[in-house]
TrEMBL record:
SMART domains: IG, IGv
Origin species: Hirundo rustica rustica
Coiled coil regions, renumbered to chain: none
Keyword annotations from UniProtKB, A to Z: Cell junction, Cell membrane, Disulfide bond, Glycoprotein, Immunoglobulin domain, Membrane, Phosphoprotein, Repeat, Signal, Tight junction, Transmembrane, Transmembrane helix
Protein's name in the database: Ig-like domain-containing protein
Record Pfam families: V-set
GO biological process terms on file: cell adhesion; establishment of endothelial intestinal barrier; intestinal absorption; regulation of membrane permeability
Superkingdom of the organism of origin: Eukaryota
SUPFAM superfamilies (UniProt xref): Immunoglobulin
Entries under PANTHER family matching the protein: JUNCTIONAL ADHESION MOLECULE A
Membrane topology: Single-pass type I membrane protein
Any GO MF annotation of the entry: protein dimerization activity
Cellular component terms (Gene Ontology): bicellular tight junction; plasma membrane
Amino acid sequence: MTPEFQSKGGILSKACDYIQELRQSNLRLSEELQGLDQLQMDTRSAPAAALAGAQVTSEDREVPEHKPVDIPCAAFRSGSSPRIEWKFQRGSSLVLIYYGGQLTEPYRDRVQFSRTSIRFQSVTREDSGKYICEVVGDGSSIAKSEVNSSCRCPLSLPIPVPVP
C-alpha cells in the first residue's frame, strides 16, 4: 500500500468512527428528549389532578404606586407545614421571590413573608405582573393562587417647553 492510500483510508476510517459516534449521541439525545417530553406531560397532568380538590384562585388587583401592598396566598391552608414558593411573572420572565424557606436577593429588603401573604414595603411600575403562590402539602398535593397586579401610577404629563 502506498502512504497516500493509507492516509485516505485512515481518514475514511476516522470519518466512519465519527459518524458512528454522532449516531450514538443522536440516539441518546433522542431518548433523553422523549424522557423530557414524558416528564413535561406528567407535570402538566399531575398538577391538574393534585389541584382538583384544592382551591385555585386568580384575581386582579390595582395597587397604588409607592404604597405598601399585601398580596394574599389563597392557596395556603392552616394545619400543616407545607412548602411555600412565591414567583413573579412578567411577560416571559419568571423570578423566584420566596424559595427554600427564604426570600431571594432582589426581594430580601423589599418584601416581608408570612404563610398567608407577601407584603411589599412600596411598589413601583416594575412590580406590575403576576404573583404566583404555590403550596405543596402532605402527599405532594399542590394548591396555587395567582394575583395579577398592576400599578396605579400617576400619569406623567409632558413638561411644557417655552417657545422663544
